[in-house]
Fold each of these.
Amino acid sequence: MSGRAKGPERPDIADCPDSATFRGWYYLKTELVDFAKAHDLKTTGGKFDIADRIAHYLDHGEAPPERKLPKARSKFDWHSATLTPDTVITDSYRNSQNMRRFMQSQIPGFKFSIPFMDWMKANTGKTLADAVAAAHKISAAKKAGVKQPDQPHNQYNAYTRAYFAQVPDGTQAQLRKLWKLRRQQPGPYVFDLADMALLDQK
């Protein structure tokens, strides 16, 4: 089996001439934060928020313009309000212990999941009865083996699933070592059996 050819060494962020080069490589969040701080860029938000600011900086030499998110109009307090199946989902929705307790009263053993949280964000105006029905549907799909779409920030999770699907006797230790080597190579970061050759490279 032919292995993956060893590619060019990953450049430091500061050595990337533009956003296209920068986005072609994998960087840890700590690396992004360090670069952002050194160039007076905001470090708030998730990893991809910081990466977007860096990409803009590399292309334009300045921080991106501020984006003001619309303020929630609803004053409904999801942390303390009494929740019932008739409660309407508002634009102020938050995943809270209060919401967890309500959902567990409707579905024993309920746990928040990314598909459910995404559903809640996208369905302002519907009721918690609809949310309960959606949670049942999401749970049924998971039990049936229906694959949920990978979130862009979950590259490692997607890589892990693909690794164990193609390497049944693989180990967590080997996976971690392989991921560390793979992220030093150009993207995209999708597992391929050719990646296994990286383990043999010095």
Note: Residues 42 and 66 are 10 Å apart (CA to CA).
Amino acid sequence: MKQALIVIDIQESFRRRPYFRAEELPAFLANVQSLIDRSRECGIPVVQVFHREPGDDPANPFTAASGFVRTMPGLALRPDAVFHKQVHSAMFATDAGGTLEQWLRARGIDELLVTGIRTEQCCETTTRHASDLGFTVRYVTDATLTFPMRTRSGREVSAPSWCSISASRASCRAPRPWRDGCRQRTPGA
């Protein structure tokens, strides 16, 4: 199987949200960086996906006008491709040439490593969507991050369990799967 690492929504926009918490961010970024570095060593393409909302309101941290739709500091990414999305699933993300799904299929990629911010929203939605499209998905749980949310009444609730996705073709991995060694190599790498 040919793999790609999908890095979802690791962007400055989240620091501007009231629910953002920085406590787990250093460990999360270290895990993601390790995954990116290992992917590079193995010749696995790294794809960056940003959530970008339409409009030009600089007060909305998810619009391009805000200047916050950019990689969080401390992460050296050097992506092979960059896509932008307006919905939860990164599979709908686009660049100048088409969708993320089209990009992956054109390169014969059939297995995705999913990492990013908002475990229970964009990461899980992408995982389910990619699985429904026939991709094998490895959901890297210790390289995803989320934040507790508040209900309208003010009660704090934690993110739903990420293990709910394990019934599909996706596999949840609490241990770091990138320690298992390279599963593919780029010729000449």
Note: The longest strand covers residues 136-145.
